[in-house]
Amino acid sequence: MEAITRNVITQDWFTIILVVCMALLAITRFTYERRFFNFIGVIGNDKYLKKSGKDRFQDPFNLMLFTVQLLSIGAFIYLILKRFDLTPALSAQILFLRVIVCYGLFTGVKFLLERIVAVLFNGEEVLRPYHYSKLVFRNFLGMLLLPINALFAYSFILGKHTVIGILILFVVFNALSIVNIIKRYEKLIINNLFYFILYLCALEIAPYLILYKLLSTYILR
Questions:
Q1: Fewer CB atoms inside 10 Å of the end CB: C or N, the chain?
Q2: Using the 8-state DSSP alphabet, how is residue 157 labeled?
Q3: How many other CB atoms are found less than 10 A from the CB of residue 132?
Q4: Which of left, alpha, beta for 122 (phi over 0: left; psi -120 to 50: alpha)?
């Protein structure tokens, strides 16, 4: 009987990424048990944000969850690019590395611009907890994407409707953070409504409209 060659695409490195994310979540869970359980309930109430809203962005708890966010969202973007064969010339590892570098730079530059605007317009009192709220919701989204990434990497085929659904979920999470900060600083925002709307249009709505345009042009068409 003639042997038939079977080409197997290994995803060992992708499995390692998922395992690293799970390990970071486990370390965070056991090191900061009470804070972690408050964190996973952030959608239902703002107890976690009220208690931790003044925490530093660079404390170990936030850094570990941000690393999970970076790897998890980067993995999802990688799956989209591979599914729609947008970068056939790049190897899987190089593509993933580029994705997380680009996502990290985009997030970092956007955060830096937001902080500069906050300082220039004396809005740190309002915008600092707002920035922290966004970080928390995105960290939560990164955690939710882990099982989704595993399913689409090993079982199901990633489709256009799923991509749209995840993008809607991302917008909802950001909207929740905006609503949360408006509730907490309603009077101050009303007194500076013009600057707040200008900030939202320039640094919140516009970047995501550009992102949607890119996705609709190259992926969702």
A1: N
A2: P
A3: 20
A4: left
Residues 131, 129: Cα–Cα separation, whole Å: 5
What is this structure's pTM?
Answer: 0.80
Decide if pLDDT at 166 tops 50: yes
Which tokens hold the place of 161? 């409707």
Helix 160-184 / helix 206-218 crossing angle, nearest 10 deg: 180
Whole-number Cα distances in Å, 111 to 118, 146, 210, 213? 10, 24, 17, 21
Helix (H) or strand (E) holding 143: helix 124-154
Nearest partner of 136 among 34, 17, 204, 36, judged by Cα:
36
Picking from 146, 141, 135, 136, the residue whose alpha carbon sits closest to that of residue 45 is: 136
**Distance from C-alpha of 212 to C-alpha of 27, rounded to nearest angstrom:** 35
In this predicted model, what pLDDT tens digit does every residue of 175-199 receive, in sequence order? 776 777 777 777 777 777 777 777 7
How many residues in the chain?
221
- Are 169 and 107 spatial neighbours (Cβ–Cβ below 8 Å)? no
How many Å apart are CA 150 and CA 5, to the nearest integer? 27
Q: How far apart are CA 91 and CA 16, in angstroms?
A: 17
